[in-house]
Amino acid sequence: MQTALAAEFRNSPQALEAEAILRKCVHCGFCTATCPTYQLLGDELDGPRGRIYLMKQVLEGHAPTRKTQAHLDRCLTCRNCETTCPSGVQYGNLVEIGRRIVEERVERPRGERALRWLLKEGLTSPLFAPAMKLGQWVRPLLPAALKHKVPARAGANAHRWPARQRERRVLLLMGCVQPAMMPNINSATARVLDAAGIQTLVADDAGCCGAIRTHLNDHEGGLADMRRNIDAWWPTVSAGKVEAIVMNASGCGVTVKEYGHALAHDPAYADKARRIGELTKDLSELLPELVPLLKDKVRRRRVTHLAFHPPCSLQHGQQLRGGVETSLGALGFDVKLATSDAHLCCGSAGTYSVLQPHLAYELRDRKLASLAPLQAQTIVSANIGCIQHLQSGTTTPVRHWVEVLDEALVP
Hints:
Strand order of the largest sheet: 2-1-3-4
Largest sheet: 4 strands, parallel
């Protein structure tokens, strides 16, 4: 797609990157067929091809409007279109650039600005944990809409961390909201890895991966989060003390793997960021190696029937498919994917379910309807956002797959 950059963009690195991405697009429309918002709304401008035209117009000098901003806001950044695209268009990078440019030129209403500020500052704040604890204590009294965002309190086992020293070690990113909302995911990860002879280390100064601020158009704030994490991990990484940086939230994983791209223009961090990205692995990438180490430690009880929802950040962002189902199957679990729409987003998409609740809950209900025929005992996923969002619409337990595996291991 030919693009004639307006004069104001010709010396902008982000605009030049956007132009290079746009040139790969042949506007074939394959992406439209797999776009969740286009399927719901039927509007060309709420599909990837339409949004690409909008961003092209802005880069060519057309003034963006609130309508332009709204169409870009409604994108889930699920990157399903990247999986579908035969031309390799990096739509995820393009839409982040487009949103950033539009954000600088279109003022949001005060209410929207306030909500976005609360999300990016509140979810990453040290005050989030005590606020979540308070919410869990009064959860029975909360209105349904708010109760959906507050999971029940975790059991005592959620904080049991293995104490054994191991020769093999990995770093684990605890995340910003996960320790407060679902701490058992992190401790279950450490216990499963310990059972396979791997010690899990945590850098205390590491926090949010940078995705929250980046996706809310606070680009500099997102980069600051990334630099802080690199600084926290670098002493351990540079000393060769760990073999990987493990992510058990696929949304964080796709972000950290792309640190090298995000900080490519920062001479102080570019090389370190690239190395961090190379070391980063989703927890499921370790599974093939873990299976033979754990196989004799799984309790041979009745078969557990699981329905697996692969997060978009896993199957489209990281291009990882089949690993969870295959490996859990090898360990004795009966794992199935939905026979329809397994590739589609559940509607969580980070803060999307707060900013676009109507679309998010419609997508959630469609996802749960596609999983229902599997009649699973438990729905499992690989990202805290998906887990909490899906749980808000069903009485079937929704958990991280590592929690189910942890419970099946002989103590």
